[in-house]
Write a structure and sequence with these properties.
The protein is globular. The chain contains eight helices and five strands. By secondary structure, the chain is an alpha/beta fold. The model has no long low-confidence stretch (mean pLDDT 91). Helices cover 58% and strands 13% of the residues. The chain starts with a strand and ends with a helix. The chain has helices at 16-29, 44-54, 63-87, 98-108, 113-124, 139-153, 165-181, 195-212, and strands spanning 4-10, 34-38, 91-95, 131-136, 186-190. Helix 2 runs antiparallel to helix 3. A five-stranded parallel β-sheet has the order 2-3-1-4-5, with helices on both faces.
């Protein structure tokens, strides 16, 4: 039995974490064994790399070094957690994946997209999700939400939140363009809806995909 690999993507403050939790609960209630994970992270090795990438004091990386760190973490994540879970027929739900690297490092920071795509093939063998939800939200609203969350949690994982509004506008457009280029796996979700409305939309799309497998 082959599982299903679902990812949620979007800019800061779009509510991915909340929706992942709700989707996992729905699937588990329906009898599906579900794994929740995140990027960068998901394994002991990848979580160590996460600290270097998302914390404000994690390091001043060159664009290429940053991308290589992301793919090093992703390779470990895929090989030691995601693929084994899928082989056991589980549904894996991941907070961010390669589309975030495309959006942040290419659309946001200006790295050539061809370089990222070559690393997808070299380090991941072209591995991609089965279904991706792009949560789209006004940048100012998203950054305000993200700032409040970080303040409430006392977190210093705010390296990307600290970047200027122009970066986040490019990021938003990047996610939308990625979704438009990959309509077979990507679903754009308006993240200004209520939590319940977003959850229902995501659940419907997942059920439709599962019924067509």
């Amino acid at each position: 039995m082959t599982g299903l690999f679902i990812t949620l993507e979007g800019g800061e403050g779009t509510g991915k974490t909340t929706q992942i939790k709700l989707l996992a609960e729905k699937l588990q209630d329906s009898g599906h064994e579900t794994v929740i994970t995140r990027e960068p992270g998901g394994t002991d090795e990848a979580e160590k790399i996460r600290e270097l990438l998302v914390r404000r004091d994690g390091g001043d990386w060159t664009p290429m070094a940053e991308i290589l760190l992301f793919f090093a973490a992703r390779n470990m994540h895929i090989e030691t957690l995601i693929k084994p879970a899928l082989a056991e027929g589980k549904i894996v739900i991941c907070d961010r994946f390669t589309d975030s690297t495309r959006a942040y490092q290419s659309y946001g920071h200006g790295m050539e997209l061809d370089i990222i795509e070559s690393l997808v093939q070299l380090s991941l063998g072209g591995f991609e999700p089965d279904l991706t939800f792009m949560l789209d939200l006004d940048v100012e609203i998203g950054l305000e939400r993200a700032g409040k969350r970080l303040s409430d949690n006392g977190s210093n994982e705010d390296r990307f939140e600290q970047l200027d509004t122009g970066f986040h506008e490019r990021l938003r457009q990047g996610f939308l363009e990625i979704a438009q280029r990959n309509p077979e796996r990507c679903v754009i979700v308006e993240a200004s809806q209520t939590i319940e409305e977003i959850a229902e939309e995501i659940e419907r799309a997942v059920q439709e995909r599962m019924s067509n497998v």
